[in-house]
């Protein structure tokens, strides 16, 4: 049995991997079989970016809402009819959990009749062979790929193939989906699929598309990496006006879209994960009327996405106000503010603001201020033993960074004045050297007996401290000139020196142990 778990783990981001574990745990606790399905499996195999996670459970995922919330997921919407849950998992991972089902299309244009099913039956209701694969996430079969339509072979061939003759008739939204995947992957439709596509298009089956499917496909457009490219294909095929009657590419703010993609990439490179979908919808519908946009919004299945899009401009205005007020009066306060808001808000404001001061602050946040991090006084911090091992280190480093942002801590004295009170106490002195060995050696030597262990100590010479005791002395020498803790570091060096003048105390216990052996040997020699 082919094991795709390794490939899956290799291809998923750490956040997505944690997402898979979270969903797995919830499904296992509920006793439901769980599979990774649809685009996620396709993209694991193709190597294309995995944008979201589609799961299928044998059972009703709507019953698991509370468990998902408890595990840290956000419920973005739920579809009672199909039994689908739209989630955002920690780390901004988009996920959809559907119930394994059979869909019987009895009347064109009407929603299918839905009945619970096994995973294999579920795969039969899918759109294209490359989307009709499932990866088991269940104990015992974890990693098993189910591929009843040989989607893996079509991935090799790079073609889109429907599963049966009536695919486009049953569900005309698949015409739009075919165009979307073809535009994204640059894969053609397989020959017979193309013929069926052409025939369905000619017969205008698209007029039977359901509102549910329209909303779903509009939402999917907002998740595309290059929605403009897809929108152009939609327009050419006549699908854009199906999604909204007056929608054309001329109604799209193309400049806004390209700015959005550029700034988003910059943020991703800096380690942020902004969710661009609300802003995508904003620019995609920029020149539609308010009513047309509202109508589109109502159809989107993920309610959290629809609301985020609706509130985008108001939230941006609010953030803009905060950025020009007291709350952002200094660079450090601005940094804190911009770090605390959702990255997508910064993304949207960066593109849309007309206020020079706001634009400059966001620009500094992404560029100049980041460089200040290089100025953190690591030599002084190390000198004062303020190192990453300290539990307080992140807080100290953050405070230092904030002061640096505001142009403080320029001189060494300023830096030391701030850091010294935060320095940890010096480490305890090393244990005293085992002088007993020396004494044993002396005893052995006196008895003219070879004493291997003691001999080493003897080699050093009378006045020379053992190696362990010498180290702190070196450290003390290196630091004594500059800092307070250096004085403390000098202390351990003093101890061994003092011990040289009180030989009896440490010698006592040591003499008890090693002494008898050489003594015995000595006896034998005599
Ligand atoms: P991506 O998320 O990368 O755009 P996807 O294949 O995951 O691609 P979704 O729209 O998220 O696309 O759908 C998830 C899965 O649900 C699909 O892979 C497919 O198996 C199934 N699916 C979605 N819509 C339909 C449909 N209209 N007919 C049949 N199956 C569908």
Q: Can you offer a commentary on this structure?
A:
- With 526 residues, the protein is α+β, with helices and mostly antiparallel strands.
- The protein is built from 29 helices and nine strands.
- A seven-stranded mixed sheet has the order 3-4-5-2-1-8-9. A two-stranded antiparallel ribbon has the order 6-7.
- Strand 6 (101-104) and strand 7 form a beta hairpin.
- Helix 24 crosses helix 28 (504-512) and helix 26 (467-479) runs antiparallel to helix 27 (484-499).
- It starts with a helix and ends with a helix.
- Mean pLDDT is 85; it is low at 448-526.
- Adenosine-5'-triphosphate is lined by residues 38-39, 51-52, 54, 126-127, 131, 171, 173-174, 177, 220.
Task: Name a few traits of the molecule.
9 strands; seven-stranded mixed sheet; 29 helices; alpha+beta; binds adenosine-5'-triphosphate; two-stranded antiparallel ribbon; 526 residues; disordered C terminus
How are the secondary structure elements laid out?
Blueprint: H1 5-11, H2 14-29, E1 33-37, H3 38-46, E2 53-58, H4 65-70, E3 74-79, E4 84-89, E5 93-99, E6 101-104, E7 113-116, H5 119-123, E8 134-136, E9 145-146, H6 151-157, H7 167-170, H8 173-185, H9 191-202, H10 211-223, H11 227-237, H12 240-243, H13 254-269, H14 277-284, H15 290-299, H16 303-324, H17 331-340, H18 343-352, H19 356-366, H20 368-372, H21 378-383, H22 393-405, H23 412-419, H24 435-446, H25 452-459, H26 467-479, H27 484-499, H28 504-512, H29 516-525
Bound molecules: adenosine-5'-triphosphate.
The site of adenosine-5'-triphosphate (ATP) has 13 residues, from helix 3 and helix 8.
